[in-house]
Design a protein that fits this description.
Elements lengths: L3 H9 L3 H15 L4 H6 L1 H5 L5 E5 L11 E4 L6 E5 L5 H17 L3 H7 L4 H20 L14 H10 L4 H11 L7 E6 L4 E6 L14 H12 L3 E5 L4 E2 L4 E4 L1 E7 L5 E8 L8 E4 L2 E3 L8 E3 L40 H5 L8
Parallel strand pairs: 1-3
Antiparallel strand pairs: 2-3, 4-5, 4-10, 6-9, 7-8, 8-11, 9-10, 12-13
Length: 350
């Protein structure tokens, strides 16, 4: 039985994976959910118990940009609400992430520690532990041989091909299980270099914002396409932050997944010893709005968004703030245009 002091020590060490492992062991002992069945089929493994049920919300409220959420009911059956995505892998991770919230309420030692923290600190911690819980269940440590490193783009592409988990889950798993002191950032990007997920294993390489094109990664993906699926070298232009600064002197490895539509990238300091982050000002940045695509200089004429700290595009006024999601058709899941929202009869499912 893990004590409150042990959990506090793990929090101080930011060892979210070990917290998840402890909670999984406690949950296995409780006997409500079959952990092995959760890995194979989370939806069926969760169904049929009196504690929590799963519902699919086919018509999420306007502006909802989350994949799901957990609704706790103190004197009854709690609920996991899932907003279906385009992939079963994403939905599997969502179910397990939300179940991770439920599990954190079931074990007194952890719950006492988590709810003793300030509200915002505790909420962020709970999210990280829920992520780690989902990744630990979906992708066992034995997926990668003991003589391989998780923080390798080719390893991650291979893992993704073998497990029924999302690309983000595989990348997050690499971060959670990486050896202490291994400084790198794992990025998932589409074939254009648009970041869909990024997380750092330490503080020496920053994690770029989701939804923005990284030109250096895009170039390396082009090279990987020409070289049979993988490439490595220096990251041309560095990792570009929303502020218009770029972290340079980074080595990068890129590997395409089995669809060749997305890639895993692992960036780390090129210098092994005596290193420190090197930053330079980027003269021009590309607007993150795909419909705009303007390239503009970041100077005194450009407005900096007070919410996200990114420069606003002078053409479309877009910054790095996440836009509210447009309503989607409950049948075909395509976004509805303003005209179709006003008059649903104008929409034709494809």
């Amino acid at each position: 039985m893990t004590s409150e002091d042990e959990f506090r020590a793990l929090i101080r060490a930011k060892n979210y994976r070990q917290i998840a492992i402890k909670l999984i062991a406690l949950e296995a002992g409780r006997g409500v959910f079959d952990i092995e069945a959760l890995q194979d089929d989370p939806e069926n493994a969760v169904s049929g118990n009196d504690e929590v049920a799963i519902e699919y919300d086919m018509n999420p409220r306007d502006g909802c940009s989350v994949f799901g959420y957990y609704r706790h009911v103190a004197a009854g059956q709690s609920m996991i609400l899932v907003h279906p995505s385009l992939t079963s892998e994403r939905d599997r991770f969502t179910i397990l992430h939300e179940l991770g919230h439920h599990v954190q309420r079931q074990h007194r030692a952890w719950a006492n520690v988590r709810y003793s923290l300030p509200t915002d600190v505790g909420a962020r911690l709970e999210e990280r532990v829920a992520d780690a819980f989902a990744a630990e269940v979906l992708i066992p440590a034995g997926t990668v041989s003991s003589d391989s490193t998780w923080l390798s783009a080719r390893t991650l592409a291979g893992v993704y091909a073998k497990v029924r988990a999302s690309r983000a889950a595989v990348a997050m798993r690499a971060i959670e299980i990486s050896p202490e002191g291994d400084q790198a950032t794992v990025v998932v990007a589409d074939y254009r270099g648009m970041v869909t997920f990024a997380r750092a294993s330490g503080d020496e390489v920053f994690a770029p914002a989701r939804g923005r094109v990284q030109p250096g990664i895009a170039k390396m993906i082009e090279t990987a396409l020409e070289q049979g699926g993988s490439a490595r070298g220096m990251l041309d232009g560095g990792l570009v932050a929303a502020s218009g600064w770029a972290q340079e002197e980074l080595a990068i490895e890129v590997a395409l997944d089995d669809s060749w539509g997305y890639a895993f990238a692992v960036a780390r300091p090129a210098q092994r010893f005596g290193r420190k982050p090197v930053w330079s000002r980027v003269d021009e940045v590309e607007c993150g709005n795909e419909a705009c695509g303007a390239v503009f200089a970041v100077d005194q004429t450009v407005t900096i968004c007070s919410a996200c700290g990114a420069p606003k595009c002078p053409e479309c006024a877009r910054c790095a703030c996440e836009l509210k999601a447009s309503p989607v058709c409950a049948t075909c899941f395509l976004e509805l245009t303003p005209a179709e929202q006003a008059n649903p009869t104008l929409h034709e499912c494809t």
